[in-house]
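for ur thesis appendix - HAD family hydrolase. copy paste whatever u need, i formatted it the way the template wanted (i think)
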Amino acid sequence: MSDSITSSPPPAFLFDLDGTLVDSVYQHVLAWREALEESNIELSVWRIHRRVGMSGGLFLNALMQETGIKLEREQVEKLQRGHAAAYQRLVSQVRPLPGAKELLAYLTEMKVPWAVATSGRLETAGPNLKILGIGDDVPVVTRDMVRHAKPDPDLFLAAAAKLGVDIQNSVVIGDSVWDLLAARRAKALGVGLLSGGYGQDELERAGAYRVYADPADLLAHLNEVGVRPAMDEE
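the 3d part is after this line
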């Protein structure tokens, strides 16, 4: 190949956190149920699960629309505090998803830029980042840092800006339809993982270019999303 031909850089990877890198979706579901029950609001677990991935405020608004319950601002804030407290009691059960640490280490080794963008606030995201061994050198965007969370694109746009990359040369990795809707609105390529409980059809309808089981499965197929194996590098 001629030296005058310039190869394009690998895409940047923008990761959701819960259900994408750490196995924490059901702890969040149970934490929300506990917080809701403390306010005498009964909701089926499946209804809660279908909204995980949104910001806490939007999550509560959506659930209240479904049930017809009206909440004042003070009640919403109480529920958010209750969720955070309940999650802290459950976080010791959370583990990295299969292949998550290996995937991040490989991307770092290959000099592929990556960041984390989560709808969780820092108080709940912080322990999960520690579980993954993610330090201060990795760009992280939490709900506290943007005006709107998923399905708005703000989190991923902010993460791309922190990396100094073009959002259109980025791959958003997420486990929920909210991640993929946000990716589509940001004009990034969306890749879905089944590790958060959504089905392949749902993720594809929301805009996923590819769907993999978990981070380990994605690591085995990185060539399908624009990352060349080390043996192909010259």
